[in-house]
Design brief:
The chain has about 900 residues and is of the alpha+beta class. Helices cover about 25% and strands about 30% of the residues. It contains 18 helices and 46 strands. Helix 4 (about 55-70) packs across helix 11 (about 365-385), helix 8 (about 295-305) packs antiparallel against helix 9 and helix 14 (about 445-465) packs parallel to helix 16 (about 505-515). The radius of gyration is 32 Å and the shape is globular.
Length: about 900
């Protein structure tokens, strides 16, 4: 129902700057003047009624025309499914997102009894993690259901699991509670022996509304064949209670109404129906999502599949209720544009697709038909003129406008909409991408969605003979998306997003453009051609990616200084993957609400794999750049810096080996002489089971199976290390508790963090140790040298110069370049080494490598008989005056960048390659 005018004015102020439509509410005469009677011959009956001034007849003729009109392409619904929509939406029960999924409704009687619900789908989805459930009243009535909690001596809630091997496991909740609105909104009921469920009155909730939550621990459980939730309780009178699965972990002793994000709202029994405006206490996303009509697709498809008028009637009634209550304010909200242009575009797409199904329904009368068409016209006019600075907004707006133009040629404006949309969408790729092809919105999900919508768009345009002229720009953007993709085909999470499977959109785009590399990644290598590169730098987007290959077990590291809409304060953050698992993760977003978990995930630097300065979030709009990117067949070197922290300038260098081992060096330069707090954080999946050594301060993951990682800091005695409590959100409206490792320094002047990231295919290496090697009198903020001892007896030596390069001694080594890494096998002999920007390496006085000129990058692997040399700027040469001398006394074969080459020998030295 329409809220009071005062409320409307207050809400209008929260929308922000908006561009009002020039189309006010249309009179019948104005509307019928918009139709193309000359171009559409079958509108003759409508035109005759209009000329006679009989608009009631014109409406009847128009409905008759649309009922008999041949099918036309109405585009796609934004959602073809929405759990519970068929049962709940007709009764005005609405859920945001997918965090709460309707499963079934149970009935409690006045006598205590046990009722059961099949929750197999929920348990399977939660296998290995946490299964949560929400209990909510199905009907608004002054009746309370009281369900035994886990604190009850008998009749406790239980989750009965039947596993694929035939065994049965019965679990009791690890947490359960209920929350209550009104004056008790800040009260926790976690210790009560009953869970109360109740709802009554008008609106989505009142002071008497109570919802119950249960949580079961499914870690260590696999192979769930079926699951049954059993609840014991009673009600004041017979009462129906809805069961939702819930993807939000909680602590029962602290959960209250005030700290719970409300995802599900009920107006069941309220004669006013939905409140399209933002109800008091609702999450702000309610305002936007409800107006997008995500539920239109499932309802329309249900009507199309069954012919049952209840579905058509429910959807038509909701559409006309929206028109009367939310879209009828003229220019106050911009007719046809409530509440924002993005929501208008989503709604218009859903209405266009729904109208194609509903136009033949007996439930649609002539007056409703015109109301709906008027609103769609006003929406189209608004989307033609509105301009927004967000790429995904404008793309969505113009795609919706194009769909409407093709579907509704009866409007004289349709041809103009069509040209406007097609031209804008071809040119917009210039505005939405950087020169390097990267996407301007710093978020994985939006990048994927943006590319996906372009795939749909180009297919739609081809189908209707509309030219798309920006295919090469789209190809470039597709390759950016491909490079961000994890080896398993999912997105590396960053920004306001979660992790999704990107393969379908990459395959479809590849097939559309004939791009074999996109097809290869989109089909996990089953078709197409493997990409020729493994590492990629996007200097304008300020992102770099290192990987060892394109198979699911390969190593992956993403280095980020990006910025833009939906970005997080995560400059210089890393995400890593190896052996089929994300090992260092971006914790995600959860929601756009002001919930403390959302604020921590989205608005703090602490929630990212970088260094936070003085407990303050970074400014991701600040200056920053990737300064070095070296991609050698054996390693990648990525360096960059940012001014994003007010207290200190931050530089980060990452040496990423193809094995997945990485060494991270952070340098912090304060802007004054005061003491500053520096916190380096590393985030992991919720089931990582972290432990932290009290001596080495190394953080170790202990997953139940599969890959693990060891995070090893240098200078453990100078760090305050801890395992802290955080959160992890794999998708919107899903969040769980997660641990992360924290390393803190409180110092004045320059400081550094040097960290080894060591992945393992199985159990993590708990024996690894790092000792700092002195480099004359130079401090680590100028030159870093580390002695790394692995648990298997192997050894690594790492050197990095932040200062001007010069020949320096450390440990048993002398080196004159910028970066060196030497790997010894457990027997103590040199197995491989890499260097950047240097010419000479000596070990214990013996030359390992010596070049007549500085080498940009070289990697050498020596196994006794085979010597492999890799370098981007190396050429084959056996001339001792020009070639690089490499100690390999027993080598009988030499490969240069993977190709056999000739060599000459002088004593222990091999000459096969020269720096160009």
């Amino acid at each position: 129902m329409v809220a009071a005018t005062t409320t409307l004015l207050l809400l209008a102020g929260t929308v922000g700057a908006r561009v009002g439509s020039t189309a006010e509410n249309l009179s019948d005469a104005e509307f019928f003047a918009l139709l193309d009677y000359d171009g559409i011959a079958d509108l003759g009956g409508v035109e005759a009624a209009v000329r006679a001034g009989d608009y009631a007849a014109a409406k009847r003729e128009l409905l008759s025309y649309y009922r008999s009109r041949p099918a036309n392409d109405a585009g796609k619904f934004t959602h073809n499914d929405w759990p519970g929509v068929l049962e709940l939406t007709p009764d005005h029960i609405w859920t945001l997102g997918s965090g709460e999924v309707y499963r079934t409704t149970l009935r409690f009687s006045a006598q205590e009894s046990t009722v059961t619900a099949d929750v197999t789908a929920a348990a399977v989805a939660a296998t290995g993690g946490t299964a949560g459930f929400l209990l909510m009243a199905r009907t608004k009535e002054p009746v309370t259901a009281s369900v035994n909690s886990r604190e009850k001596a008998s009749g406790r809630p239980a989750l009965r699991l039947t596993l694929t091997d035939g065994s049965v496991r019965t679990l009791n909740p690890t947490a359960d509670t209920y929350i209550k609105a009104g004056t008790d909104a800040g009260t926790s009921y976690g210790g009560k022996d009953v869970l109360q469920v109740r709802d009554q009155g008008s609106g989505p909730f009142t002071a008497e509304t109570r919802k119950a939550y249960l949580q079961f621990d499914l870690r260590g459980v696999s192979g769930v064949r079926s699951a049954e939730l059993s609840l014991t309780g009673r009600a004041d009178a017979a009462k129906d209670v809805m069961v939702f699965s819930n993807s939000e972990a909680f602590v029962e002793s602290s959960r209250t109404w005030n700290n719970t994000v409300q995802n599900t709202y009920s107006w069941q029994g309220d004669p006013g129906g939905f409140d399209w405006l933002l109800p008091a206490g609702a999450d702000k996303e309610y305002w936007y999502q409800l107006a997008r009509f995500f539920f239109a697709g499932p309802l329309a498809r249900a009507y199309q599949g069954t012919g049952e008028e209840k579905y058509a009637d429910a959807l038509i009634g909701t559409m006309t209720d929206f028109i009367a209550d939310a879209d009828g304010y003229g220019t106050e909200y911009g007719a046809g544009s409530y509440p924002r242009s993005l929501d208008t575009a989503r709604r218009l797409d859903n209405w266009t697709a729904a109208y194609e199904i509903l136009r033949t329904s007996p439930s649609l009368d002539a007056e409703e038909n015109v109301q709906i068409l008027k609103t769609m016209y006003r929406s189209g006019l608004h989307l033609r003129g509105n301009v927004h600075d967000s790429p995904n907004w404008m793309q969505t707006q113009k795609i919706s406008l194009l769909h409407a133009a093709v579907y509704l040629p009866e409007f004289t404006a349709a041809a103009g909409w069509r040209g406007n949309a097609a031209d804008f969408l071809a040119g917009q790729l210039n505005d939405s991408t950087y020169p390097d092809g990267g996407y301007r919105e710093a978020t994985s999900g939006y990048a994927r969605g943006y590319v996906s919508q372009y795939v749909d768009l180009v297919e739609f345009m081809k189908k209707h003979g509309i030219a798309f002229t920006a295919t090469e720009k789209l190809r470039k953007l597709g390759h950016f998306l491909m490079d961000q993709t994890l080896p398993n085909g999912y997105t590396a999470n960053y920004g306001d997003s979660g992790s999704d499977d990107q393969r379908t959109v990459l395959r479809r785009l590849g097939e559309l453009l004939g791009d074999q590399e996109l097809i290869y990644v989109g089909t996990s290598g089953k078709a197409g051609t493997k990409p020729a590169h493994v590492a990629a730098r996007y200097p304008d987007t300020r992102v770099a990616v290192s990987r060892s290959g394109w198979s699911a077990d390969d190593a992956y590291l993403r280095y980020n200084i990006d910025r833009g809409p939906h970005s997080h304060p995560d400059e210089l953050s890393l995400v890593t993957y190896k052996h089929g698992r994300e090992l260092l993760v971006d914790p995600g977003t959860y929601s756009y609400s002001s919930d403390p978990r959302s604020d921590w995930l989205r608005k703090t630097t602490e929630a990212h794999n970088t260094v936070e300065v003085d407990n303050l979030p970074q400014n991701s709009k600040a200056a920053g750049e990737i300064t070095h990117f070296v991609s050698n067949p054996a390693f990648d070197l990525i360096s960059g810096n940012t001014d994003a922290s007010a207290g200190a300038w931050h530089a980060r260098s990452v040496l990423a080996l193809r094995s997945g081992v990485s060494v991270v060096s952070d340098q912090l330069r304060p802007r004054d002489t005061a003491s500053h707090r520096y916190e380096q954080n590393w985030h992991f999946l919720p089931d990582a089971n972290l432990t932290q050594s009290s001596t080495t301060k190394a953080t170790v993951t202990r997953f139940g199976s599969g890959a693990n990682v060891t995070v090893v800091p240098a200078d453990p005695g100078k760090l305050t290390a801890s395992v802290a409590n955080g959160y992890y959100s794999p998708a919107f409206y899903r969040v769980s508790d997660a641990k992360y490792s924290s390393y803190v320094k409180q110092v004045a002047g320059r400081t550094t963090f040097d960290t080894l990231l060591l992945p393992s295919s199985g159990a993590a290496d708990t024996g690894v140790r790092i000792t700092r090697l002195p480099v004359g009198t130079l401090t680590p903020d100028l030159v870093t040298a580390l002695d790394i001892r692995f648990g298997d007896g192997g050894r690594g030596t790492y050197y990095k110069s932040w200062a001007t390069k010069a020949k320096r001694a450390f440990g048993t080594y002398n080196f004159d370049g910028k970066i060196l890494y030497v790997q010894d096998n457990p027997a103590g002999s040199v197995q491989s080494f890499i260097l950047y920007d240097g010419s000479t390496v000596q070990r214990a006085g013996k030359v390992l490598v010596n070049s007549p000129v500085p080498v940009n990058d070289i990697a050498v692997t020596y196994d006794g008989s085979k010597l492999r040399i890799d370098g981007r700027t190396l050429t084959a040469s056996t001339d001792p005056a020009k070639a690089i001398a490499i100690t390999a006394p027993t080598a009988t074969e030499v490969l240069l960048n993977g190709t056999p080459v000739n060599f000459t020998r002088t004593g222990d030295f091999i000459y096969a390659a020269a720096a160009s």
